[in-house]
Structure formats: C-alpha cells, structure tokens
Amino acid sequence: MTRLSIPSFKCMLTEAGMRRNVIKSGRSMKFIFIAGLLSLASTLKAESDFANINVMTDFPGGSAVVNDIDRNKGVIHISPPIQTERGWPCWWYCKVDGVIKGQTITFQLTANTGVYRPNRVLSANWTQPDRAAISVDNVTWSQTEKCVKQNGIATYMVEAPAESFWLAWGPPFLPSHADEVLETIKKKLPHATLFELARTRDGRSVRGIRIGSDSKTDSHRYGVWIQARQHAWEAGSSWVGRGFIEWLASDDQAAIDLREIAIIYYIPIMDVDNVTLGAGGKEAVPRDHNRDWSDTPNYPEVAAAQKRILQLNSEQRFDVFVDLHNPGSSERRPYFFGPMDIEKLPTIQQQNHALWLAISKNSISGPLQLEPGYKFATYVRTEEERNRMSANWVRNHTAEHVLSTTLETVWNTPHSTQKGYMTVGAQLGQVVSRYLGSNPRGSEN
Ligand SMILES: [Zn+2]
What we know:
- With 445 residues, the protein is an alpha+beta fold.
- The chain has 3 domains: 6-46; 54-168, Immunoglobulin-like; 175-444, Zn peptidases (Aminopeptidase).
- Helices cover 33% and strands 20% of the residues.
- The protein is built from 11 helices and 17 strands.
- The chain has helices spanning 6-22, 26-50, 175-188, 235-248, 253-261, 272-277, 300-314, 347-363, 383-386, 390-397, 418-436, and strands at 54-56, 65-70, 75-79, 93-97, 104-110, 133-135, 142-143, 148-150, 153-159, 165-168, 193-199, 205-211, 222-228, 262-267, 320-325, 335-337, 403-408.
- It has a 7-stranded mixed beta sheet with strand order 11-12-14-13-15-17-16, with helices on both faces. Strands 1-4-10-6-7 form a 5-stranded antiparallel beta sheet, with no helix packed on it.
- A hairpin with a 4-residue loop joins strand 2 and strand 3.
- Helix 5 (253-261) crosses helix 11.
- The longest helix is centred in the N-terminal third of the chain and has 25 residues, at 26-50.
- The termini are far apart.
- Residues 1-26 have low confidence and may be disordered.
- Bound molecules: zinc ion (ZN).
- Zinc ion binds next to loops.
C-alpha cells in the first residue's frame, strides 16, 4: 500500500538526530522528534491514499490517452485519442480504479490537438464539457461540479464516490444499452418486431425495432422513422431516442393512440462501429456518416435505411423522419434543423412544418426547452453536400407531405443528463402523436 520505504524513515530519523546536536533543550528535542513522526505519518498517509490509482479504457466505448497520473497528489490527466480515419477525437470514457471513497481526485482533461484528418484539428470545445459525467456502477450517471478551464486544461475536482468509478464526456450509450432497450420494449409490446437493419462495414449488427403492423394492406397507417447516433460521440442523442421509444411503449394515452395509427421504426445506434470503438465518428473516412445519404452510400446501415424508407414511401405510408443529434457546446436549448428555402417547398409541406413547430414549441417545454423556430445548417457549404444529409435526402426522395427534420439536443447544460435527454425524447413522442393526429397527409388521406 505505501510507497515510502524504510530508508526514507531512517533518513528522517537521522535528520532529527542531527538537529539533536544543535538543540540543547531536552523538551525541544522531544517536540521535534514527535513532530517528525507526525510529519512522517502524514506523508505516509498522503502517499498511500493515491498510490493505487489506475485509469482503464479496455471496455466497449472506452477512450482515453492517459497523459499522467500523479500518485502523490491524486491528479489524473487524460486526453481523447486520435483513432485514424475514425473522426473527431472528442469522445472520452474511462474507469478510475484504486481510489479511496471520499478522497478528492483532480481530473484534468486536455483536448487532442493532433491532426485527425489532413489539415484538420478539433477545437477543444467539443471535448471539454462544463460538467463531466460520473458513475459508480456504469449504469446511472450524474454530473461533476463545473470544471475550471485554464491554459487549455479543464480541471474537474471529483470526490471519489467509491473505490472505483467511471468518468465520461457524457452518459455513454453503447450497443449493449441498445440491445437492452430493444428487448425491454419487445417484452412490453409482444407484437413489435426486432430486426437487423444491416451489418456495418466492420460486420457489427445495427439493430432496430418496428412497432405496428408491416402489412401492405395497412397503407392508411402513418409511417415514422426515428434514428440516433449517426455521429458516434453524440451519446446524448441515443438517450433522447430511448426516452422516445420508452414513452411510445408506455400507457400514456397519446402513446396508445400513436401505436394505433402509426408504424414506427426506431434505430438506437446507426454508427455502431465507431460507438463500439469509442471513436468520435464525425468526419470519419471515407465520409461523415451524415454526409453519406447519396445514391451510393458507403455505410451499409445508411443504404438499408434508405431502402426501407423508399419502400414505405412507395407504399404511401411514410410521414415523419427524425434524425437525433447533439449540437455545439455553446447551444443552451434543443432545436430542429429546418429545410433551407422552406418557401419553395410544396404548400402542404410548408403547412406541416408550421404545424410541427407549433406543436413542438408546446410539447418540448423543459427543463430543456425548445428554441421556438428552426435553425439551418448554413455551415454546410454546397447544395450537393447538403443533399447528402439524412433529413434532406429523405425530403428529396419522399412524398410532398412528408415531414423530415433533425433534432439537436443540447449536451452542455446541467439538464443534459440521462433524465433530461429522455424527457426530451418523451416530449418528442407527444409531438409525433399530436402531429399525426392532425391529418398531415391532407387530401391525400
Ligand atoms: Zn451530429
């Protein structure tokens, strides 16, 4: 346990002995000897307190470069790693072991300023949340106190909640969580269908669930597609998705109504590969997942989603597409990305967007309260690239009345927790239910 060796003890005794030669008073000698022992005891304690600290990342989604562990002072310093061709180096998630419950650990986080793609370095904002996520059991997550940012280092003072605990950019949501949610929903709604959307480029399963009949004679039913996590680091979006699907399976009357009138497809994690590897995913090679919605997608899960959506559309039973994301660090309220040039869209679609926004404003009411209007992806420079984003591709390839959008749920606030995200998801469910209850197909229906 202790790192202080016997020779050090001797050394301190010798020092005390030397002092004995110059101090004539026996009382003083005694005092110094006791003070020395006390000092030795406190040194022993201080060193042993942190002596066994370790940081681990060898589990699904785990991600950190350990820059330093100061076992004298209890300071851990990490950065997210660059994973070649795996996108933004912003996601981090580690387990801290060998601490003593109640002791204060200084957790320092520095952004990775390496080149993750030719000529591209990521701003620290994406890596350093004001409050990190912390968990004792790797299941329930809370937030640390707000960090202090200085000279590029974000410092979080953490009171160790147990001998080992987990720290992360935000509450992780892994394929194991997705499986658990899907199985739970299936048990609750036996008529729901679990399916494999695709196998990823690396051969992993992308799973989803369909709630409602898939019968072609059911064309009067509305069709809804909700997906999360095209960007692997945006773990919060998967918690929003979980909130949505658990609400949909609940006994809330609006959920029961929605299950009666619609077929709902839900994909908890699209980029399963990068989520499993603990990579950021955004701007990965060969393409950002959400710029891959072209006629020749690289990602099998994108191709499979396109195929199913086109099929539903051709059977005249497709109505709503929502892609779930997390935005930039300075955003404080969730918002939808709307279509550019909305005034050029068919009249029925314009009306549907107005209706969707009005319902959303009422339903997504807090604690993460929706921005009242749409925002627009003006940072995407060309129309060609914009058309390769999921919501735009869906809008361009489906019927005139279809409502296709992206929900960006903020991650850098005190309410950006499992509970806060899931509340937004449940509220999104209310939006979909009320929206479809208002006959968005208009005269087509
Ligand atoms: Zn995103």
